[in-house]
Amino acid sequence: MTDRFKEFHQLHHGDRPLLLPNAWDHASAAALAARGFTAIGTTSLGVAAAAGKPDGTGDSRDETMALARGIVRLPAMISVDMEGGFSDSPQQVGALAAELEQAGVVGINIEDGRPDGSLTSVRHLCEVIAAVRQAAPRLFVNARTDAYWVGVGNPGVVAIERAQAYQQAGASGIFVPGVEDEEAISTLVKELSVPLNILLLPAGPTYARLSELGVGRVSCGSVLFRLAVHSAVEFAWAVAHDGESRSDLPSYAQIQALALDFKGERGTA
Amino acid sequence: MTDRFKEFHQLHHGDRPLLLPNAWDHASAAALAARGFTAIGTTSLGVAAAAGKPDGTGDSRDETMALARGIVRLPAMISVDMEGGFSDSPQQVGALAAELEQAGVVGINIEDGRPDGSLTSVRHLCEVIAAVRQAAPRLFVNARTDAYWVGVGNPGVVAIERAQAYQQAGASGIFVPGVEDEEAISTLVKELSVPLNILLLPAGPTYARLSELGVGRVSCGSVLFRLAVHSAVEFAWAVAHDGESRSDLPSYAQIQALALDFKGERGTA
Lengths: 269, 269
Hints:
The structure is a homodimer.
Chain A: H1 4-10, E1 18-20, E2 22-23, H2 26-34, E3 39-42, H3 44-50, H4 61-71, E4 77-81, H5 90-103, E5 107-111, H6 122-135, E6 140-144, H7 155-169, E7 173-175, H8 182-191, E8 196-199, H9 207-212, E9 217-219, H10 223-240, H11 252-258
Helix pairs in contact in A: 5-6, 6-7
């Protein structure tokens, strides 16, 4: 058996950044695996919204764990978005991370953004990172700073300070979502020795450009989830208003090509 | 308080068929409601696949009930796809239907297709329909025959026989998925006194044409779910292969327009 943990780490040091698509349920993960993605993340926004819960509040712990336990059976390496860790206790976050490692999950995301829109203390996230590394040493621990998302005075400076502290605490990689500026991204790459993870943004650099900038991982975040819901709703609206051209309906061949991991084949409704 | 049960029945007798989009999770239902759909169905394929379970086998009972209990809080009338009823006992199906009615669900789908690809006996589904009507008299009971989906000799004849039996047993409406032929649809409309529900199909009549044919309800079935997953996966693939033009990324304005029922606003990953 190949060491999937090592393999996942190595994907951050290839010729191009690891492009991590983010699933929100079993079907989306299965379809991504079927399309050839060998590593798949989860999106906490998607997991929470699918269950009718708010994101980033720790309310989706059970849904996140259940999804992780299901999709580790897919032929893909799975990294799980743990929000803030689903607990204020570093030891409890470590225990949960160990459960995920035990289940076969290869990586996690852990963030410093808090439900009230502030950042948790640097010290707290460092303690969480250290506890996770100790409890689940094989996991790729991607530490995320939300410096660009919360209203801090100088997000670039705060992001670097926090990224370096998290790296020092044992993070395998650093995730800085919300940054679009190429110089800021280059600076982060230079100041860190672990891989930098950037969120793909409409107004930010393309995947190819992020590759040139030396980024180690590019995440889709919640965009796939949001696009999925958007596509479905707009299609229904177009049908209802007769604006739908027939060619936009995915054919059965296309649908079969999705190769979703359904066992039942009889019904399509 | 308006009588949502009566209102849902009446939507089957308007100038145009009730166009029922089908949700698979809370987010898709919330987004459909936000887009103005006042009645929303569920798709058993979507609910099952989202949970990594097969469709039509009754395995998704808990997921279906949990979804129903969540989305009845949305500003939309909800009809729930109960597959074969999640039980072989008509009384137990009736009890489950009563739970849904109590929760505020206005309609259900109940089908004669079985996991092994055969049709259950006419008598069995008639007993289920009667039990549901007795236990949950306000529900719109949409009885579905899978005559066109299973390999019966003459699906048109079988569909009419079954539809009439289900109507006789107390069904509020009849759902015949899989039929694309306009003459067959017209015949079904003529032979039934309750509203006929047709599944929108790529090679079948358009919504406007189904309206002309006298259909009472048009269902999207699993197509929205399948389109959602398809859109997400293809987008991720295009990003990974640099085939993605930036304009295809949904903007934040579009995303905000989705008006998903999220409470948290801080994160987008």
